[in-house]
Amino acid sequence: MLALAFLVAPFVALVASAPWGEMTALLDDGPAAEALWLSLRTASLSAVLCVVLGVPLAWLLAHDALPLPGLVRALVTMPMVLPPVVGGVALLALLGRRGLLGEHLDAWFGVQLPFTTAAVVVAQTFVALPFLVISVDAALRAVDPRLAQVAASLGGSRWYVFRRVTLPVVAPGVAAGAVLAFARALGEFGATITFAGNFPGVTRTMPVAIYLALERDRATAVALSLVLVAVSLVVLVALRSRWLGGLAGLAARGVEMAGAR
Amino acid sequence: MNAARHVAIRPTAAARGEGRARTRPAARPVASRHVAALALAALAASGLVACADAVPSSGASSGTASSSGASSGTASPSGTTPAVAGRLVVLAAASLEPVLTELGDELEAAHPGLQIDFSFAASSALAEQVVAGAPADLLLTASAATMTTAAEHVTDQSVFAGNTLVIVTPPDNPGKVATLKDLENGDLRLALCAEEVPCGAAAAQVIEQAGLTVTPDTYAENVTAALTLALTGEVDAALVYTTDAKDAGEAVRTIEVPEAASVVNDYLVATVAEAPNPAAAAAFRALLDSERGRAALTDAGFRVP
């Protein structure tokens, strides 16, 4: 309970200090909506990228198909423990205009990543990917391999076993990982401002807008923060209770069915 | 070189006399105490803190101990004029660090028994600390606006220096920038400070007064970030303060901007209303206004009034 209070009390204080009377006036100007829309777009894209890139890696990790799994796991978690600003500097060193890879991207294809919306997605994916890999890895490990074997031994084709047994069991883990990755991407600040920069409508996401507003006008910063908090809460609660609950129920039924056969 | 000393709010044995004893380099202790108090207030509001009374009282006692230690330094009698001795606490904008540590060392050398503790941080944070009652003697901010925050808690505000903008480019100047007008070129990668921070407000004013339409690729969150982008070659040009460009030395190419001469960012000094050591504060301000002080500021790239 103390832990819960510790986590919640700051938000209660934030809500209490909010300029409720002028809230609509503070948020009514285009920039706030622009930043929110950019954040939602980039974070969704990052979550999809995380699933596409992360699930295969998590599958390899969960099935001990990689050499030095301990080292690989440590490398995967690195963006989680490093300050995101360091991630931003590292991304610049690799993909910046004079970066290791960025130099060639520029020379060969004329592609310059920094200060573009694509750079925002790269930065967000970089910091969010570990969350997806770790949760999917854990979910896959929790799957009893005998389930698929049993299903196969009972005459299920490979496709049938994958569709009716493996997928339902794994899907909640992937969905949970995707939600976590989305939430992390939505709140991403350090790597974004360092690697992608800050320009309205292109790279100024909500967290960047909040940071800058804090330099000039605390009321606007608080108002923007509350919008971000509200959006995060809605997304997390909705996905957890409805979608994930549904998927988890589905998975439980899948397990029951597989077990019953 | 001069090592920067930082303010330690906890009482030090060297509050007077021994002078040179190094205080612990706790970064922004005043701010952390402030934050701790806020956090406690938030927790207390939710009615869940059992040990609430233990922590603030220790914080408060350390604060008073330090200020009383400092004022006992000023109280040391030496004829009719108060002696310049004891502990002087100076809160100053980060951009002043090199020049102030140099001047501080000279003042300490001239007044045995004087110990100057600097706390360098963002002006806005320092002004908040003064408002919160930090036991400091002097406040030096990098803009008039930030001094306004603390206006009710300080006396004798005056402008002692100014900073203007210049263009910096990577040393090889890949964008071939020569004038402010060249920044209008859309192919140029350009960083300006965000308008929310002082250097960005100044940049916007310079560009507007010159009647130019300049669209940067990014708005840097502070002047150092803008400088770093030019330094690393991520942008072809950035508008930064003269002092930052000077500090970067050969790592960037500096292009003077005649149009920027009229947009001066003022640096203000003020004495904290309840300064524990007003005599030493006055001595420090006198040095800042002296020929020597003005020369040191000019060397660092500042304009002096």
Q: Give the % helix of chain A.
A: over 70%
Number of helices of chain B: 10
Number of helices of chain A: 12
- Count of extended strands of chain B: 10
CATH architecture of chain A: Orthogonal Bundle
Strand content of chain A: under 5%
Instruction: Please tell me how large the radius of gyration of chain A is.
Output: 21 Å
Q: Which residues of chain B form runs of ≥5 with pLDDT under 50?
A: 1-79
Instruction: Count up the domains of chain B.
Output: 2
* Share of β-strand residues of chain B: 15-25%
Unreliable parts of chain A = none
CATH topology of chain A: MetI-like fold
Text of the CATH class of the largest domain in chain B? Alpha Beta
| Domain unit count of chain A | 1
The rounded distance between the terminal residues' Cα atoms of chain B is 28 Å
Based on the structure given, which CATH architecture of the largest domain in chain B is correct?
3-Layer(aba) Sandwich
3D structure, described in words:
The complex is a heterodimer of chains A (261) and B (305). Chain A contains twelve helices and no strands. Chain A has 261 residues and is mainly α. The model of chain A has no long low-confidence stretch (mean pLDDT 85). Helices cover 38% and strands 19% of the residues of chain B. The radius of gyration of chain B is 22 Å and the shape is elongated. In chain B, 45% of the residues are buried. At the A-B interface, helix 1 and helix 11 of A face helix 1 and strand 7 of B.
Key traits:
heterodimer; A: 261 residues; mainly alpha; MetI-like fold; B: 305 residues; alpha/beta; D-Maltodextrin-Binding Protein, domain 2; 2 domains; five-stranded mixed β-sheet; 10 helices; 10 strands; 38% helix; 19% strand; disordered N terminus; signal (chain B); metal-binding (chain B); ModA/WtpA (chain B)
In summary, what is this structure?
The complex is a heterodimer of chains A (261) and B (305). Chain A is mainly α. Chain A has 12 helices and no strands.
